[in-house]
């Protein structure tokens, strides 16, 4: 069963435009949720995480995400895109009772053009 | 403060060969997890080691095996390599199996 779905394998925005990357999870119990960024030929860097505290989570580099239980969503946003934001973004979940195993979505490649 | 170190960074192997990848966790971390990231896909969980024991395993065949040493470093071994094993292998460390993961830059394995 798919635990996390990222809608849109490629997203393209203009520099200065809003960035919206979509993530939906499938779990009856609210999981822990994460967004990671991967630059070419590098590992994963944590942008932000939701661990059942505030539903609006602020991360690094101006990114934020809102946990919406009713929509089972955890979409990532940034008000104004910068050229340096071009990268691959992964949404991930940790389900209860699993030794904190990360389950990743397929990823969304963000392109930022001038 | 060193993060997670993986070696080698790149590796080319022939089908049927065996390979060993290495990971040194972040200072203070004692748990190591391994992930396989095929081209254009999200990372897939292989297994996790804690206290030198495999604690959890993903949907990977027995050709994939691992080890954790007393200093918390870890190895990932893959036997009888297939072309489909070509991927970026990521190591992530955490403290006592918590979710505060730090990822290494990965080992790019190419099987020809």
Topology:
The complex is a heterodimer of chains A (114) and B (112).
Chain A: E1 4-7, E2 10-14, E3 19-25, E4 32-38, E5 44-50, E6 56-58, E7 64-68, E8 73-78, E9 87-94, E10 102-104, E11 108-113
Parallel strand pairs in A: 2-11
Antiparallel strand pairs in A: 1-3, 3-8, 4-5, 4-9, 6-7, 7-8, 9-10, 9-11
Chain B: E1 5-7, E2 10-13, E3 19-24, E4 31-37, E5 44-50, E6 53-57, E7 64-68, E8 74-78, E9 87-94, E10 102-103, E11 107-111
Parallel strand pairs in B: 2-11
Antiparallel strand pairs in B: 1-3, 3-8, 4-5, 4-9, 5-6, 7-8, 9-10, 9-11
Straight-line distance between termini of chain A? 39 Å
The string of secondary-structure elements of chain B, in order, is EEEEEEEEEEE
Using the alpha-carbon principal axes, give the shape of chain A: globular
Which percent range describes the beta-strand content of chain A? over 45%
Low-confidence regions of chain A: none
Gross morphology of chain B: globular
Q: How big is the Rg of chain B?
A: 13 Å
Give the overall pLDDT of chain B as a whole number.
Answer: 95
Number of helices of chain A: 0
| Biggest interface, residues from each chain | A-B, 24 and 25 residues
Notes on the structure:
The complex is a heterodimer of chains A (114) and B (112). Chain A is 0% helix and 54% strand. By secondary structure, chain A is mainly β. In chain A, strands 2, 4, 5, 9, 10 and 11 form a 6-stranded mixed sheet that branches. Chain A has a 5-stranded antiparallel sheet with strand order 1-3-8-7-6, with no helix packed on it. The N and C termini of chain A lie far apart (39 Å). Chain B has strands spanning 5-7, 10-13, 19-24, 31-37, 44-50, 53-57, 64-68, 74-78, 87-94, 102-103, 107-111. With 112 residues, chain B is mostly beta strands. In chain B, the strands form 2 sheets. In chain B, strands 2, 4, 5, 6, 9, 10 and 11 form a 7-stranded mixed sheet that branches. A 4-stranded antiparallel sheet of chain B has the order 1-3-8-7, with no helix packed on it. In chain B, a hairpin with a 7-residue loop joins strand 9 (87-94) and strand 10 (102-103). Chain B contains no helices and 11 strands. The chains are: A mainly beta (114), B mainly beta (112). The interface between A and B is medium-sized, with 24 and 25 residues.
